[in-house]
Amino acid sequence: MIWQDITDQWSQFSEQASTRWPLLRPADVLDTGGDFHVLAALLATTYDLTLMEAEETVEDWSMTVAPQIVANTTLGQVA
After folding, report:
1. How far apart, in Å, are the Cα atoms of 58 and each of 24, 39, 48, 75?
2. pLDDT-based confidence at 72, cuts 50/70/90?
3. Crossing angle, helix 36-47 and helix 51-74, to 10 degrees?
4. Model-level pTM?
């Protein structure tokens, strides 16, 4: 459920993802559309990770932004 919320609010979270992984171009991050697997593949290619490592990294990052999702939902700011 958390990843669907991230996807729904990708314009906000793509900026944070770009900050988290500075080797990724912001436009490329935005172009993933918040698709977990596309972002993980981009991360794997850019950072020379296995796909599994990249997926774990993206999953870990999603847990760090989860409190913002709850806050946005509580405040009625869901896109």
Report:
1. 13, 8, 14, 26
2. low
3. 130
4. 0.84
